[in-house]
Amino acid sequence: MSTRKMLRAALIAAVYVALCLLLAPAAYGPVQVRVAEALALLPVLCPEAVAGLAVGCFFANLLGGMPLDMLVGTAATLLAAVCTRQLRHVRWRGLPLAAAVPPILFNAVFIGAELSFLLLPAGTGAGLWLLNMATVGAGQLISCGVLGVALVWFIEKRPALLRLFDETPTLSPVYEGPYRLVLPAWAHKREYLAALAQPGPADEDWLPLAARRDGRSYGAVLRGMQRLRTNPPEGLMPSTLFFFMDDADHLLGFLDVRHRLNEELSRVGGHIGYGLVPSARGQHLAPVMLRLGLQQARRLGLGRVLITCNKTNLPSAATIRRCGGTLTGEYTRPDGTVTQQYWVEL
Description:
Layout: H1 3-22, H2 49-63, H3 69-86, H4 97-119, H5 126-156, H6 159-162, E1 174-176, E2 179-182, H7 189-197, H8 218-230, E3 239-246, E4 251-258, H9 263-267, E5 272-276, H10 286-299, E6 304-310, H11 314-322, E7 326-332, E8 338-345
Antiparallel strand pairs: 1-2, 2-3, 3-4, 4-5, 6-8, 7-8
Helix pairs in contact: 1-2, 2-3, 3-4, 4-5
């Protein structure tokens, strides 16, 4: 884990502990509304929140005089956080409601059992366990299902806050004037759908493969992008898709960086594929987007990149040359189309 991620995990743990202590005794006992549990939805935004929540829960229960809960509560929080992370892309109208289920369920079961069979020796019946499950679950429903979901929604609607939870700091946004290249996020859903709905070419040939919707929900599109980054289907190379945006958060284009080449990409496609949305064309933005893409390619560890275009696409060829591309060869496809191959030293 990088220093930045460790600091983020530590901050989440500290805030969790502070909220528990400041709002005690409401955060402890059979009937509790632990406001700090709103943070249990943060694994939706970054993986290090899993560790931060577990550590925060451990120390909150230690300092709150609940030594047994240090084990039971921390175990419940850790398991719930892992599951919440896995459910981060399952949405209903953009809200991570499914991700709120694990902290509600795990805490209701674990803490309900703890309160019934361990902390309250006189109550050993299943009826009391169910009662405690209901009271703890109700508190978690408020903390996670309402406050936690609202917290994630609030953060995702504000790019400035969302950048604080950037999962891959080496691929944090790069800027040129009012323009930036960013990783896709839930906050961009409306702009993404609006961009694809713009009138333009009859097909999506201008759109990088990773950005195509193909009838999928936006959540499925994000999951597909993540899979292409980390575990692409057989025959495809790992790639990272970026959104090209302005300072008003308008989506202007898409740029895909392939981490390495196969035989086909070495002939046609190259390391970088990009396209502007129809409304952004004719504004000389392609060189800006490509320059930002070259910066991200360098961050991905590439020393030189291949960019290709059709020989008849003179504007695209000019853009590549303006960004340092050197024509090194041509490839004629079976249909007779000639593809030019440009290499750019980074």
